[in-house]
Amino acid sequence: MSDVPVRPSRRSPIVGRFMPEEVALASRNSGMPLEALRYDVTPAGLHYLLIHFDIPASDAATWALSIGGEVDRPRTLSLQEIRAMPSRTARVTLECAGNGRGQMSPRYPSMPWMEEGVSTAEWTGTPLAPLLRSAGIRSGAGEIVFRGTDRGVDRGTEHDYARSLSIPEAMREDISLVYAMNGQPLLPQHGAPLRLVVPGWYGMASVKWLAAIEAVNTPFDGIQQAHSYHFRSNAGETGVPCTVMRVNSLMAPPGIPDFYTRTRIVPAGRVALAGRAWSGGGVPIVRVEFSVDGVWRDADLAPAQGNWSWRGWTCEWEASAGEHELACRATDAQGAVQPEAPVWDVTGFGNNAIQRVRVSVR
Amino acid sequence: MSDVPVRPSRRSPIVGRFMPEEVALASRNSGMPLEALRYDVTPAGLHYLLIHFDIPASDAATWALSIGGEVDRPRTLSLQEIRAMPSRTARVTLECAGNGRGQMSPRYPSMPWMEEGVSTAEWTGTPLAPLLRSAGIRSGAGEIVFRGTDRGVDRGTEHDYARSLSIPEAMREDISLVYAMNGQPLLPQHGAPLRLVVPGWYGMASVKWLAAIEAVNTPFDGIQQAHSYHFRSNAGETGVPCTVMRVNSLMAPPGIPDFYTRTRIVPAGRVALAGRAWSGGGVPIVRVEFSVDGVWRDADLAPAQGNWSWRGWTCEWEASAGEHELACRATDAQGAVQPEAPVWDVTGFGNNAIQRVRVSVR
Hints:
2 copies of one chain form a homodimer. Chain A is mainly β. Chain A has helices spanning 20-28, 79-83, 128-135, 167-170, 223-226, and strands at 64-69, 75-78, 88-95, 118-127, 143-154, 157-166, 176-181, 184-185, 195-197, 210-216, 230-231, 240-241, 248-251, 256-257, 264-266, 269-278, 285-292, 295-298, 300-301, 311-319, 322-332, 355-361.
């Protein structure tokens, strides 16, 4: 089904305390609790989840993926056929483009992530590029559209969730059609039975419940491609599409938490800190800094885990009694550094401002 | 370690919009998306999670459970020894005692569940009662204390999460020490490698990351037992402990959602509705009613799934164009019925008011 034409329907920005709609989204979606930064690969059920509409009820036995549009050899593949193709497993960090939205002001009415919309999994599937090659993309085609079966309404437009990639981007060798995660069959909430995984990009590109791949010769104008997921300084602008992840880092907060405030209680003395840093587009992390009360120093980097996964870092701190603010900041190989404060964006995308953790040392 | 004595520290009630602390709790904890009501058993990663402090980093190989206190034969068991004991699997519905708190006003500052803090799993473990019998509980003992390794601060008190059960309650044949969930090893966030599961009670009794079982001859005064998880009409009262779940029900919202408001869009015509109903203490569900715009009628009950699991229900509705409000209401075998509005409670426990779902029929 195609998108129902857009009816103008703009959500008003929010200042201050949160709306029940935001809390309902935060309750049904899931962040990765930051202590799970301890795992190289996020365990099942701790990977963040942003589910736009409902999780579809899918049947792997009858699932079919169609490949069509501007191709010479359209075809339909069963899950069994896709599983029989060459497979590979890749460790990939995905982050929601809206991660950190809840810390911006004014704030766009949507999922109010604080900082926990990021995770890493081992994704197993078959490479996309050979399938596209064998379908024979016609010379006039400019984009490949990926359609999920998750359907709903956003800003007045009823649609199946769908995104596109340019032909060169779609032909990247590292993009996969994925049917397993961390060595287990893909879970319903992660797109079972089949999803796209686009390493290095924000999560919106990794279309879940993937049912159709279509080559098109005009730019795809679906709402999730042409309207959502754009950086905008002012409402109403066309904006710039969200693509690769911005450089970012997090620490696992040390000590123990207060249940409600999540303020950390840390015993005085030597504290071992650890966290993860990542960037987009396969650009490696080259530096992580750690600060106590605004005084920065270099953290130690763990070995890289390939081009698409977050990189571990550690640091030690001689904690003295009192209230302190800890922070971390990553730099990537292209020289991109996390900013002190969120870069303004109308709908709250791409907030990679440095994380601050309040600790009470006793 | 024992609890650090309570310093009075009361959180002020909240009216209206939500605090960042509530949103941070909603983002790190996880509700069950209501479309997952379609599953008899909630799949891994969709089961609700209320994690008071941090998920402990546990090592199954070195894990030990101590059984001590007022017993004749104290002992320490490895996970391997517990796994070698007689095992059984039970389908159990657990609900957070704070489910529905976010819909109350004024509202206690805590996890602001709307309605999604409930799930059902197949829990595999060994019965608790034979272990207690073999330890030889002394005649003076009145309670059994269950201690987890998750440590934090709540209202000024630093403590390991711990709860107690009276001896008769602890000796119930259906309580298990659990090491597997839905046929897989217990996940870190669900209490790996070992947890308690107390069927029929709100979730707070099912202590995760269980490290110690202790028979005591004075009432256990840990904060999570003696102070938290009490029903109170007024702040400062001793209150009545939360124990068995109250009768409750939910429907899977029909049609498709609007992303932000979650209002449902439903095509006119026949709509198949389905949901789940449950009560506590092993009391069966005997009736579920469904209403459209306040007109109630009986839904059809699916066969019961044992004493401890939610029960399915279905209903058909001839949907006419316009805005409608759907609701469902369960009755249990003891005649308990869900109320129209939340029963007042200072800290927001036990809200089993009927669910209302707004739908727009087109």
